[in-house]
Amino acid sequence: MQELTLKDLPVTLTTRSPEETEAVGAALARLLEGDKSCPTFIAMYGDLGVGKTAFVRGLASVMAPGRGVRSPTFSLVNEYRVAGKKPLFHFDMYRIESEDDLYSIGFDDYPDAGVCVAEWCEKIPFALPEVYLEVRIVKCPPEVDMRQITISIKEAPLC
Ligand code: ADP
Ligand code: MG
């Protein structure tokens, strides 16, 4: 996996295994750690089983090595921390239906405290920051293990 820079975005990468998807996540984490101008909120989109959690595992392998990544399906948010690094907050928005639901997990306080990555951002269009990274993963039939991962920067239009 080549290094990613902000100038490469938007970029679409093809992977053929969960390990390759993790490697893309790890490359994005190195970009985040190395470039202060990189947005620190990652909004993820893609169907069940497409590889969002695999991608987060790659992010965490750089940002919080040694911490196990599990899907925060019931907890809604997992924190991965190691000494000397910004924490990584991993959200699963699948069960979020309203701003009140987000308020109840203290969502507003997380972006200032570390890097946020959220699965199922389809559910929270009303809560995205002004500038964020978008990661979209889609399957590529007929190959069962092939995925396309598109990473781009999204900014609220000036008006
Ligand atoms: P999600 O979080 O999007 O629901 P997971 O990361 O939990 O998805 O699971 C992805 C599943 O797809 C795993 O079973 C993984 O082994 C499989 N898989 C097959 N090919 C890939 C690939 N190229 N990238 C990511 N996962 C893949
Ligand atoms: Mg998941």
Written account of the structure:
By secondary structure, the protein is α/β, with parallel strands linked by helices. The chain has a single domain, classed as P-loop containing nucleotide triphosphate hydrolases (Rossmann fold). 22% of the residues lie in helices and 26% in strands. Strands 1-7-6-2-5-4-3 form a seven-stranded mixed β-sheet. β4, α3 and β5 form a beta-alpha-beta unit. The protein is globular, with a radius of gyration of 15 Å. The mean pLDDT is 95. The site of adenosine-5'-diphosphate has 17 residues, from α1 and α2.
Walk me through the topology.
Blueprint: E1 11-15, H1 18-34, E2 41-45, H2 52-63, E3 77-80, E4 88-92, H3 99-104, E5 115-119, E6 131-139, E7 147-155
Parallel strand pairs: 2-5, 2-6, 4-5
Antiparallel strand pairs: 1-7, 3-4, 6-7
The chain binds adenosine-5'-diphosphate and magnesium ion (MG).
Magnesium ion binds at residues 52-53, 71, 119.
Largest sheet: 7 strands, mixed
Order of helices and strands: EHEHEEHEEE
Radius of gyration: 15 Å
- CATH architecture, by name, is 3-Layer(aba) Sandwich
- Weakly predicted, low-confidence segments: none
Strand content: 25-35%
Ions and ligands: adenosine-5'-diphosphate, magnesium ion
Whole-number count of domains: 1
CATH superfamily: P-loop containing nucleotide triphosphate hydrolases
Counted by DSSP, the helix tally is 3
Helix content: 10-25%
The number of distinct β-strands equals 7
Cα shape: globular
